[in-house]
User: What shape does this take?
Amino acid sequence: MGMLDSPHSSGSIGHWTTRLELCPGCDRDMVQPDSYEPLWGDRWLIARSCPNCGWEHEGVFPHAALRSFEEHLDAIDDRLWDDLVRIQRELIDDEVGRFAAALQANAILPEDF
Ligand SMILES: [Zn+2]
Assistant: This one.
């Protein structure tokens, strides 16, 4: 026991691990794409900037990096969308509450029906 031959260290060749959404300037994952431009093969010229600290970068990346970047952006979109839906639902609840209060204030009686 104790003899670990570390089978994990050599298994990551070809696996893209750079996260394009991570900003080297401020370490936040808020980097946004400014433009994509297909170059050759699966290479893309990707311009990015960080809204948090103003970091800007343009570089060539493989398609795999672009794909995981977009997955990250999609996840953010989903989060924003969830927030929107939640806010809207709260507004509707608020309106229903006001409507119910208005009904009570107008004293609609059961015998009106
Ligand atoms: Zn930054």
Notes: Residues 1-105 form one domain. The pocket of zinc ion is lined by residues 23, 25-26, 28, 50, 52-53, 55 (CB under 6 Å).
